[in-house]
Specification:
The complex is a heterotrimer. Chain A is mainly α. Chain A contains 14 helices and no strands. In chain A, α5 runs parallel beside α9, α10 packs antiparallel against α11 and α11 packs antiparallel against α14. Chain C is built from 6 helices and 11 strands. The chains are: A mainly alpha, B alpha/beta, C alpha/beta. At the A-C interface, α1, α10 and α11 of A face β7, α2 and α4 of C.
């Protein structure tokens, strides 16, 4: 008879859906010593990632750092970068979460093609993205020419163009992250909510979003980081002008042409800001959300 | 030097990935050839690999000069690395494997001074106004660059063509109102080609290279501001004969013809 | 209220073909081993599984009619389904879980909360109202899941293996709880269990099920 089998199913489910808040077993297991064939490549991999940054730190113009970093140009570029990356992240969330939902929760012909197209900006050189955006929104672009004749408004060389370029390259990160999480999420919670009388929109807001909250946060974080570092699409589509379109990566690239110590100093600032964002959000916001949702 | 090294190092790493096409046998470069006999481009004794770092504005002309040399010297393989002069100078300072350096400004050559030999001027370049074909906004001269209603592109002041543009405007007493500052002269010209801006200041050579998509206007204020192009053999070269031969060929009548055909002013 | 159904669902392993009518206030137990289609039947009535053939009527409402191609959406059906695994929303407290269905139907926060407390009270778990769903024991979460289903005053109650999570000693208490507070004389109840003892203790009628069809 199947009484034990029934409780087994139940226990498995409890564990999966996180009803067990603290179980000591996994923690002990996690402290296991890594076998050498894993440990050595892991250490090499980490070194490979961190060594260039350490070198950057070592060779940085520490003496002049204060004045270089607080120069008006540097602050202007940093402030613009933070503003545009934040705006791009917000747009990514507004467009990307619904897009991920449609990809994960509905089925329609050509869905896999759509999924591939969504990730295209991820694998293409960003400069190509910039050219593509110009083809659409440039003054002679498909849409841009209409905007120009109708409103006398052109998108390139504006801060809006920076946000568009950053959103273009950052959106796939959010969609991928949320799509994956939605597809692996337990559908039965959404079913339970629907049975209780919740409309699909209410289910999305009150059950689905909390369920995938951590991955939305992680996706938003990745999008922000990607937007912050965006260079190719920005310089191609939005151009380069201090205060309007010159973000930190552009300022760094141009400083490298004739003033390498400023370029180094700006790189340090961008690195510090990115790291602070990654560490800060990881430790507080994301882990907080994970704590709530599990 | 030491402070600049990391940036240059990163750039050099990127470079290694791009310019590893010289697949000649290493032994060839060691084969002794009489140094004195290499002053004329036609001399057949030049061989081995030669790597030339040259400013982006030299892309077409140097490729042609290189073809001439390789045609005359079948055992010679020339690899080019075209880029912004400043970037190239940083790469040289980080011991990037180059034999010849041709820069678009005296300033960047000075940056690389400690790793190159005595530079020689081989060309000048002057600024022109380029507008999209048909000149839709009827740009007539430098004063139009102060019109905020026009979309204007200049080179960023950190690159030679931008520095030259700054000097032009300062001399003319005009406050330019650019919408964007191109990271290099080719990018700046592209904004005109694609019709995104109404006018830009670029080198004459780039205006010619942009072809029929743009129209060129010369302006009197350009006369006083020319950009000098110096060339030098890199001190650490492993193929000094070929390097010197390349420099000599650039300075020879044949090389100079290629350059002037492209719009450079001769030395 | 009366549940009148003929549910046909074709699956790879079996075809569920069950004609079942449950009168107002009647408790019917579907009994059978795992994998014979008991849960599929409940999900079909709740609208989570589409019918390949047949119909589901609840009172004078048609929830499903395969011939007329009618399929009422899940949220409109007014079915109370208690899942075997309870499926409490882990980001909400016990009371918020119970209030969920009411809030989803537009009931104000305060009213929904008061109503939720009342149901938690009736099911004996009022003291856990503010406990996060993740901190409830198996028995507590079952009561909260029952309260959550009942708080929306569904037209039919569908219970999927309500005793699977409980050890044997806890069963008499749950039996009593169901009889006293959950079963009434209006609402039809379908109870799914693999344990004939539970079925005969609670149900007015037992329908044995074997591989998708009523057992002989």
């Amino acid at each position: 008879m199947s009484a034990p089998a029934g409780s087994d199913v139940f226990m498995t489910d409890r564990t999966r859906s996180g009803h067990e808040t603290t179980s000591p077993a996994p923690r002990v297991a996690r402290r296991r010593r890594a076998p050498l064939p894993l440990l050595v490549p892991a250490a090499l991999g980490f070194l490979f990632l961190v060594a260039p940054f350490v070198a950057l730190l070592v060779r940085s113009p520490w003496g002049d750092l204060g004045s270089l970093v607080t120069s008006q140009g540097a602050l202007q570029a940093l402030w613009l970068s933070l503003r545009t990356a934040t705006a791009a992240t917000v747009v990514c969330l507004i467009l990307g979460v619904p897009l991920a939902w449609v990809l994960a929760r509905t089925s329609f012909p050509g869905q896999n093609l759509v999924r591939s197209i969504v990730t295209l900006p991820l694998v293409m050189p960003p400069v190509v993205g910039g050219v593509a955006l110009l083809s659409l929104l440039g003054r002679r672009g498909l849409l841009g020419s209409l905007l120009d004749t109708a409103f006398g408004f052109t998108v390139p060389f504006t801060t809006l163009a920076v946000v568009i370029a950053e959103t273009f390259v950052a959106l796939p990160f959010l969609v991928l992250s949320v799509d994956g999480s939605l597809r692996s999420a337990d559908l039965r919670y959404e079913q339970a909510a629907a049975v209780l009388g919740a409309s699909p929109w209410y289910v999305f807001r009150r059950v689905t979003l909390p369920l995938v909250g951590p991955s939305v946060a992680a996706g938003g974080l990745l999008s922000f980081a990607r937007a912050l570092g965006e260079f190719g699409a920005t310089i191609t589509f939005a151009g380069n002008f201090p205060g309007t379109t010159q973000t930190m990566p552009l300022a760094i690239y141009l400083a490298m042409q004739d003033d390498p110590s400023t370029a180094l100093a700006l790189s340090l600032v961008l690195m510090a800001v990115s790291l602070a964002v990654l560490i800060g959000l990881r430790s507080r916001w994301v882990s907080g959300l994970i704590g709530v949702a599990s | 030097m030491s402070r600049r090294a990391p940036v240059a190092l990163v750039a050099a790493l990127a470079l290694v990935g791009c310019s590893s096409s010289g697949a000649n046998d290493a032994g060839a470069s060691l084969s002794a050839s009489p140094p004195a006999a290499t002053t004329t481009p036609a001399a057949p004794a030049i061989s081995g690999d030669l790597t030339v770092f040259a400013a982006a504005s030299l892309t077409d002309t140097f490729a042609e000069i290189g073809d001439q040399m390789m045609a005359a010297n079948p055992d010679l393989t020339i690899t080019f690395n075209f880029g912004s002069s400043g970037t190239l100078a940083e790469q040289l300072l980080a011991d990037a494997p180059a034999d010849v350096f041709a820069s678009a400004s005296a300033k960047t050559m000075t940056t690389a001074a400690e790793v190159v030999g005595e530079p020689a001027l081989f060309a000048h370049n002057s600024l022109v106004i380029v507008v999209p074909k048909g000149n839709p906004r009827e740009v007539t001269g430098l004063s139009d660059f102060a019109n905020p209603d026009l979309k204007i592109a200049l080179c960023d002041p950190s690159v030679p063509c931008g520095a030259a543009a700054q000097t032009v405007f300062a001399n003319a007493g005009i406050t330019a109102m650019p919408d964007t500052l191109g990271p290099d002269v080719r990018a700046t010209a592209t904004y005109v080609t694609s019709g995104e801006v109404d006018a830009a200041l670029v080198y004459k050579t780039d205006a010619i290279a942009a072809g029929s998509a743009v129209e060129t206007l010369t302006f009197p204020e350009a006369a006083g501001v020319v950009n000098d192009y110096p060339i030098a053999v890199v001190q650490g070269t492993r193929n000094a004969d070929a390097a010197q031969a390349f420099v000599d060929h650039v300075l020879s009548p044949a090389g100079q013809t290629v350059l002037t055909d492209a719009g450079f002013d001769p030395t | 209220m009366r549940l009148d159904s003929h549910v046909v669902v074709r699956r790879a392993a079996f075809t569920l073909d069950l004609e079942l009518t449950v009168e107002a206030g009647e408790v019917v137990a579907l009994v059978g081993e795992n994998g014979v289609g008991k849960t599929t039947y409940l999900h079909a009535v709740a609208g989570l599984v589409e019918l390949d053939d047949g119909y589901v009527r609840l009172g004078d409402r048609v929830l499903d009619d395969a011939t007329g191609r009618k399929h009422m959406s899940v949220e409109e059906r007014r079915c109370g389904l208690v899942f075997q695994q309870h499926l409490l929303f882990s980001h909400l407290s016990a009371a918020e879980n119970v209030a969920f269905g009411l809030r989803a139907r537009g009931v104000g926060r305060r009213d929904a909360r008061a109503w939720a407390r009342e149901w938690l009270e009736r099911l004996g778990v009022a003291q856990h109202a503010d406990t996060p769903a993740t901190r409830l024991s198996g028995g507590q979460s079952q009561r909260v899941a029952l309260a959550r289903a009942l708080a929306t005053e569904p037209d039919v109650l569908l219970l999927d293996e309500p005793f699977a999570a409980l050890d044997v000693t806890a069963r008499p208490a749950v039996h009593a709880l169901l009889r006293e507070h959950v079963f009434d004389d209006v609402r039809p109840v379908v109870l799914v269990t693999h344990d004939p003892a539970d079925a005969s203790a609670l149900a007015d009628r037992v329908v044995p099920l074997a591989l998708g069809r009523p057992a002989a």
